[in-house]
Amino acid sequence: MNLPRSAGAVLAKELRIELRTRDLTHTVLFFVLMVAGLFSFAFSPTADESRRILPGLIWMAFFFAGTLMLQLCFVREQANDTLAALRLAPIDPFAILLGKLLANFLFLAAAEIVFVPVFSVFYNVSVLPVLGRLILVLFLGTFGLAVVGTVFSAMTAQARMRELLLPMLLLPVLAPVLIAGVEATGELLVPHPSLAREWVSMLAGFDVIFLTATWLLSGFLVEE
Amino acid sequence: MKGKEGTWRLAWLATAIVLGLAGYAIFFVAPPELRQGNVYRIFFFHVAIAWGAFLAFFISFFGCIGYLASRQQEWDWLAVSTAEVGLAFTTITLIIGSIWGKEIWGVWWTWDPRLTTAFFLELLYISYLMLRVMIVEPDRRAMVSGVFGIFAFLDVPLCYFSIVWWRTLHPQPIIGGAPGTGLDPRMWYVFLFVLVGITALMVVMIRERYRLEALRRQVGVLAAELEERAAPDESKGVTA
Amino acid sequence: MTGFWYILSAYLAAWAIFFFYSATVGRRLTRLEAEFRRLKERAARD
């Protein structure tokens, strides 16, 4: 099987599992609402202030939601040792990772579709005028999170204390995404919004570099 | 084996002598700097140790690649030894840099690009060592930490540039300037001397740490052998 | 010498951290060597 078809099959499998169990969807939805509520207690911001802190809040909330979700991606396979079956399939190991990372990307994107309107209402910041550009920034940042997160989830699946380990590995590596994401989002929420080219290219560069590294190293990651 | 051990002892001795002389040169040979007076003398060690740390992380990156390419445990030992020594050197760099900053900038810490990048390097390689603690099986540990080592090293330039851009968009809290350019030739000689000493220190320290890893392997092999001898039937899955 | 205490404290801090680190490596080495000897002896006895 060629790469797109086999990755598509893995992606379809991930989506099917999620549609049946709805584990991630429910947890993350609740997490999003809870974080949005709790942050507003912690800061009680005015409109001007919230414009300043909102980008940081959005990205920190995504990162923590992401580490929660990504945990399950490979651990889920362990209950019935289904990863062994995937490994036996006559497909490129990169296809397994690609399918899973696309699934993770879609889950994260779905969470963001809820997240952004909720935040924009709670904090009284209008995102509609810059929606297209905001989606671009969120897309690139979320993709970077999904790539590195899927890889690290595969790495830590068999480690001790993996629930603690994954965030500790993931968050320092994601520092460039956090800086670039927050800055680019911030530029969009000021009175005269503009798309920050250097930050968008930083996010795109991060995605390309780590997707390439994943492709090169995929053989080792899926191995027993 | 004995001859090899003697060579390394000689290397330790030579390193100690060079660093002792370097210490003397820093305080008594190098002339005071025009704007900073004497505090700049911290820089000889600071810059040399930072160089040592970065070199160690660079070797660690190749150790990771080497392991993944060859599956030889020795590469993994090299990767972990260099990562740990690099981490120790980064810690020293940050702390003595901070002491210098207190005198010149008036603050212990600023979010300057190099400082922040060093801080993230520290975090990344602490994660690397923590990951190793959490995986027991040696081959799996070597492979997973090899992949993480590559990811972490690829992250460093991205971190650096994002922080440089981030800083240029924010006001800088720096009070004094960067260290003066155009070094006095005597300063150069002293610096090169310190650099040689620190690099040698890094090499001998990595070798000590590597020996630890090799010994750990020997102990593991011996313990497994003894276990096999103690219960030979069980290990073969045959009951007498 | 102006700023002498800053230079001296930085210099001493550098060596203190280094010696602390090399002491941890040394301690781990001695422990492993003892373990290695113990196992060797057991292997010779059996």
Write the layout of secondary structure elements.
The complex is a heterotrimer of chains A (224), B (240) and C (46).
Chain A: H1 3-21, H2 23-43, H3 47-75, H4 82-88, H5 93-122, H6 131-156, H7 162-173, H8 175-189, H9 197-222
Chain B: H1 2-29, H2 42-70, H3 73-104, H4 113-134, H5 138-168, H6 185-230, H7 232-236
Helix pairs in contact in B: 1-6, 2-3, 2-5, 2-6, 3-4, 3-6, 4-5
Chain C: H1 4-45
Task: Outline the structure in words.
The complex is a heterotrimer of chains A (224), B (240) and C (46). Chain A is mainly alpha-helical. Helix content of chain A is 83%, strand content 0%. Chain A is built from nine helices and no strands. Chain A is globular, with a radius of gyration of 18 Å. Chain B has one domain. By secondary structure, chain B is mainly alpha-helical. Chain C has 46 residues and is mostly helical. Chain C has one domain. Chain C has one helix at residues 4-45. The radius of gyration of chain C is 20 Å and the shape is rod-shaped.
Q: Summarize model confidence as the mean pLDDT of chain B.
A: 84
Number of strands of chain B: 0
What percent of residues of chain C adopt helix (DSSP H or I)?
Answer: over 70%
- Structural class assignment of chain B: mainly alpha
Number of domains of chain C: 1
How many independent structural domains of chain B?
1
Please state the oligomeric state of the protein chains shown: heterotrimer
Number of strands of chain C: 0
User: How widely separated are the two ends of chain C?
Assistant: 67 Å
Key features of this structure:
A: mainly alpha, 9 helices, 83% helix, 0% strand, C: 46 residues, mainly alpha, rod-shaped
Compact overview of the structure:
The complex is a heterotrimer of chains A (224), B (240) and C (46). Chain B is an all-alpha fold and 240 residues long.
